[in-house]
Every structure is written in C-alpha cells, then in structure tokens.
C-alpha cells in the first residue's frame, strides 16, 4: 500500500465535494467523512459502487457502509455493516489521528455488557412486581387512547411528571474508561436501587416516544469534559435526539474535535454552546492537522443564539490559558457561530490554513 501526496484540502473543500452528489438526508455522514479526510468519490459512469475515499491513503468506503457506521445509533440492529464501515483508513494514513473515538471491539464488548445489564434489569423488575394469578385472556379490539384527545401542552405536563427529572446543567460521563456507553454523572454516582421504570413511557408507542423525548432536551444543557464524550453522546441519542438537542457545554482542544463538531453541526435546533478551549487562541504556530480541522468544524456551526466561553481544568502548577472574552479569537468564534444558519462563513481557508 502506498501513501499518495495530494494538495492540502481544508475541511470546507472536502465537504464541498459531497454537495449535489449525496442527498441532504445524509448530511451527518458527509460531515463526518469530510472531518476524517474523505472526499466524495466520483467514479466513471460505468462504475457500480458509489462512496468516498481518503485524500491521503485513497481508502475507498461504499456509501451504504459509511451511512450505517456514521449516522445511526451506536447500538442499532445492523452491527455487522457498522463494523466494516468503521475502517475508513489504512494503517499508515495521517488522518488516523482524527479517528472516530470508537472501534468495533469496544462496541461488541459493550453490546455483550448491555445484554447482561438488560437481563439483570428485567429480572429485578419481575421480582419487584407483586405476584398475580394468571387470568384467562380474552381478545379485544384495541381501543384508541384518550390521552391524545388532550391538548399537547397538557400531555407534555403529564410526561414531565413521569419522566426522570434532568438538572438544567447535566454532565455526561462514561461507565468506565474503556466503555463507550454513557450516563449522566448523577446516575453514575447514585448508590442503591435504581428506579428503571420511569423511562418505560418511551416504549409505549412512537407518538408518545417522540413527544416525551422532547422533555429531556427542552431546557437542559448537556456538559462534556471532552469532545470524545460529546461525540459518543450524539451517536447514542441518534437522529431523533440530535433533532431535539438545544444546548451543550464542551471542553475542546482534543483529537476528537473534528468528528464531534462535524456531527454537532447537523443538529438543526441547536441554540447555544459554551466553549471551554484549553488555549487562548484558535490556531497555534505549526498546528497539527487535527487541530486545524477541529477549528474548521467548530466554525461551521451557525445560527446559534448564545455563545459563551468557560474556564478549563488545568494541571497543577500550570497557569490557565483558556480562550475567554478578552481574546480577539473569541469574537471571531461568536461572529461565525451566530451568523444566520446556512449563510457563508466570514473566514477563509488558504492551502488548508485559516486566514483571519
């Protein structure tokens, strides 16, 4: 396998190659592919397969594999295709430093663990219910629920009384350092028995699921100590959850910035973001490729109503050097992220580098 050297293409250039070739419904996939160094593959007319290929290692990935691996939930039904699609590059590709923060092995192990947890939960729920004598069943015609005769506002109030309460600022963490399963910090630190029946409401029917799920996103800001956590969260909540997400608080400056912000840009109702960047400026001299792509993907966010900057955790003996309101780069970020959704950005990328 030989590595080819091609002219540097910025994230914006790579993303543009997918325009008019892939349908808008696949925007989450195209953004993630562009963030990981891929461009749209435009084969000759007689070619039978469509997909994308890396600009560095030329690894080709079929479109259906990319969509299965990058757009659906991490714990969907078609895991075999997901495993294949995760291998987007050859081993020596420079874009592996922007790798997706998951792999087939971690998904498979978490699936096995999830099945065990599900079995334990079902056993716990059966034991917690009072024993009832079996009654002969009679077949009845399903009756329409009177719940949907109520006004939507009243139904949402009912859901809010049943669903688990979320803090206005809800930190997210993983079950362990190796796991890709995420939980709220409150749920992770809770001791003793857990009431797992509160979310059963989401399993009643599709109409109730779509209405009740909105309760978890309406006034909640989800907080992440890394863009890896943000990415795992966006994949866990799936397309429907991403369509409802409104506020995030994220510490960035990591190798997962490109893939996380590229997926965050596909959340249509996102209104506000708190950025905690571990440096005072966007671009440092001699910045590596993953940092450049991370900034490009961040600046692709648009249409936000509120952009704020928070402090970052620092190591002992280290002075804080985070991006804050006093820095000129903060004004650039706010200007770009609050511009009208879909309008062109106000920064230029020259030979793959930001010109501000």
UniProtKB/TrEMBL annotation:
Family annotation (PROSITE patterns): BIR_REPEAT_2
InterPro entries attached to this UniProt entry: AN11006-like, BIR_rpt
Top-level taxon in the UniProt lineage: Eukaryota
Annotated protein name in UniProt: F-box domain-containing protein
Originating species: Zasmidium cellare (Wine cellar mold)
């Amino acid at each position: 396998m030989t590595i080819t050297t091609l002219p540097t293409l910025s994230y914006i250039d790579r993303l543009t190659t997918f325009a008019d070739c892939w349908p808008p419904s696949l925007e989450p996939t195209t953004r993630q592919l562009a963030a990981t160094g891929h461009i749209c593959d435009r084969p000759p007319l007689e070619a039978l397969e469509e997909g994308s290929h890396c600009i560095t290692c030329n690894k080709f990935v079929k479109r259906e594999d990319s969509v299965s691996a990058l757009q659906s939930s991490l714990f969907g039904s078609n895991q075999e295709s997901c495993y294949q699609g995760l291998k987007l590059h050859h081993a020596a590709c420079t874009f592996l430093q922007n790798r997706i923060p998951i792999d087939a092995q971690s998904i498979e192990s978490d699936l096995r663990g999830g099945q065990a947890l599900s079995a334990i939960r079902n056993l716990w729920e059966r034991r917690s219910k009072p024993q009832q004598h079996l009654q002969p069943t009679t077949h009845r015609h399903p009756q329409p629920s009177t719940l949907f005769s109520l006004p939507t506002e009243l139904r949402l109030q009912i859901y809010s009384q049943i669903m688990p309460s979320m803090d206005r600022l809800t930190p997210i963490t993983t079950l362990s350092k190796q796991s890709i399963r995420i939980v709220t910090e409150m749920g992770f630190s809770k001791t003793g028995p857990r009431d797992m029946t509160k979310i059963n409401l989401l399993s009643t029917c599709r109409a109730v699921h779509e209405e009740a799920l909105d309760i978890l996103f309406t006034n909640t800001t989800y907080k992440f100590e890394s863009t890896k956590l943000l990415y795992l969260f966006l994949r866990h909540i799936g397309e429907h959850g991403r369509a409802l997400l409104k506020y995030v608080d994220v510490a960035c400056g990591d190798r997962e910035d490109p893939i996380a912000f590229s997926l965050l840009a596909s959340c249509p109702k996102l209104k506000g973001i708190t950025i905690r960047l571990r440096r005072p400026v966007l671009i440092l001299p001699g910045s590596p490729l993953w940092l450049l792509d991370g900034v490009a993907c961040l600046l692709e966010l648009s249409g936000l109503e509120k952009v704020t900057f928070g402090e970052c955790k620092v190591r002992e003996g280290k002075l804080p050097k985070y991006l804050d309101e006093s820095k000129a780069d903060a004004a650039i970020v706010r200007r770009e992220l609050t511009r009208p959704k879909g309008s062109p950005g106000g920064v230029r990328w020259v030979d793959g580098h930001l010109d501000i």
